[in-house]
Amino acid sequence: MKKILSRLNKRQKAWFWGFTVFNGLFFCLIFFLAGADIINALAMLFITQFLIVTYYMSIRNDKKKTKTREWFDAIVFAVVAATLIRAFFLEAFTIPTSSEEKTLMIGDFLFVSKSSYGARLPMTPIAFPFAHHTMPLIGGKAYIEWPKIPYYRLPGFGHVKNYDAVVFNYPDGDTVALGQQDQSYYQLVRDYGHDEVWKENGIERNTGQPFGKVVARPVDKRENYIKRCVGIAGDTLYIKDRTLFINNKPALVVGTMQYSYELSVGNSNVRVPNFGGSGVQSNTTETASNGGLTQQILDDFDITEKVYPLRNGNFFITLPNDKVEKFKQLSFVKSLKPMIADSGVYDPRIFPHSPNYTWNVDNFGPLVIPKAGMTINIDTTNIVLYDRIIGVYEHNDLKVVGDKVMINGKEAKTYTFKMNYYWMMGDNRHNSADSRFWGFVPEDHIVGKAVFVWMSLKENASIGNKFRWNRFFTFVHPDGLSRSYFIPFLIIVFSIITGFYLYGRRKKKA
Fold it and tell me: Is it true that the peptide bond before 136 is cis, omega within 30 degrees of 0?
């Protein structure tokens, strides 16, 4: 150690001891507070200290620093700083799917605050920088699963509230078929059977692609999802004819939420396109003498979901709440009827995937969201609501033997929850894979709160129409995005640059 320190100047020694003390404090945090076992805690301590010592051993103050060394030091500093910011304060995300439209849209680039709910300590801390679960370019795992840190959350500025836009790790993502990563492994098993999904050459019929290798992922390396948290721990929710109720009160409804409708047109010659998703439609024109759904109408009404004909001659269309009444006034619209699944019609895709609960996307519940310390009665009927919580999220040995529920080898008629749970739903209510399909989100899966959209780009649009300027530099609120602060930002930046320029000129003249 003396040999290392003798090479360093005062500033370098201060940084070395600073990192060493921080490493020691982190060891105390994960061992005494997070509850990591001594082997995992010491492994983290020694690995991190080895990296610190190795870096400072490479410093040679007796020689002039080369350009290569300058670049290396700059990259190390940038990686360390960005990793700490990403882990404990802010992380950048993009919106990949339409499940939150039109509140958050495909192509929105946003910042997620880790400190809003308290930063979660990295549970698998040894990972490739800035990669989530897969190595860029070459593929394969971007992390190693040892050492591990138990779930622990640092103090934050608040707690998850109803209607927050929350980023979380996908609960069904603990097991993944790598060839079908955008689908729930458990739904694939329900649809095709375990043996077919695990078969070496098994094929998913809808895509024609193989299921691929089946792998397990730790909590913090599961896919990141973003949804609106409609129910928090202790709430009771139900859905009646697509209207959501929380604690027997109608939930927040905003204009950017959207639903599916059955469109009936008054003129059989109206051209309604078979539209395959976000982007410019290939079979529409800007003007249509029969008043059909032109690209201009699609743009005006923010119609980015699939439009297609139904068997009865009408059409399926998805509209945001704040556009429905205006759309009804179009000359070719005869009627616009909400598409609502009938109450009591069982949908096997819907949680808890049991015919004992005849629920669907539009009629669901009532259901109590578990809260830490809450005790419930359990039996062989309602255990399907909580089996994943008890067996997977809270790490118990759960079995149903005849008419008995066995937990850790003993018959159980009640269960007390260890964690808080949440209920997440997308604002695109008829095109969102959310809690209605896979159930509760445990508190240890919560990543952070979406707070700020800094850029928004349209898919498949020309460069002139690529930017959604009104969404640049907007804050995310429960009722939608704030006004854009992009112009004020540009004015401030321009003023600062101009001020420095004028100050420099004046100083030069003096």
Answer: no
